[in-house]
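step: validate -> pass
step: tokenize input -> pass
step: predict -> running
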Amino acid sequence: MKKYKEIIKHYENCLDKHGDTHLGVDWPKEEDVFKRYKVMMELMTLKKDTYNVTLLDFGCGTAHLLDYITKNGFSNVIYSGLDISEKFVAVCKGKYPETSFYCGDVLNPNFKLPAFDYIVMNGVFTEKRELTFEEMWDYFTQIITKVYSLCKKGVAFNVMSKQVDWERVDLFHVSLDMLSSFLCLNVTRDFVIRNDYGLYEYTVYIYK
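step: predict -> pass
step: emit ->
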């Protein structure tokens, strides 16, 4: 079994226990969740797109970002969701039957996705669970490289900061130097690091 499947199992256990809530996707504080959505959506507003743009919510969980988009009037955003978990996608389709949701693993060469203007990955890389740092780093770099190839304009993702009082062994803390070096050498030099929203993590925008 691929080691990252352990992370998926953890989130499915959260969904089984807590249902369609912020706890069901393992975010402990609901007020922090809205901060993350705001920062994720600013991937697009930074570029001041005024016409319709396509957005893929990678690791969409139960589509809470779509709830946020709908309530906050992002009328120019055409939303689609993707999750590797059939359980989460089933909940999404039940809530939003007219919205496109994909279920699959982008690292599977037989799984095909269309290109999107923007792709956001909120919480996909914050937990590593039982994986070693090296195993999680390998998974992370593979996904970032693949997803960047699927976007037309930009990608946003968050990881845990190393500027903390202590590091939790089940979380994925990544140094700024290590991340910057990887992006510059393998993806793009056109990126923005957001460390300005008060949480023990940071968000990165990478652009085409």
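step: describe -> The helical segments are 5-18, 30-45, 64-71, 86-95, 133-150, 176-186.
step: cleanup -> pass
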